[in-house]
Amino acid sequence: MTYDLTNRRVVPLDLDGVTDKAGLMDRCARALALPDWFGRNCDALADSLSGRTVWPEGADGRGLLLVVRGWRAYADARPQEWATAQEVFAEAAERDPALTVALAVGGSAEHLTGQAGRSDRD
Question: What pTM, to 2 d.p., does this model score?
Answer without folding.
Answer: 0.81
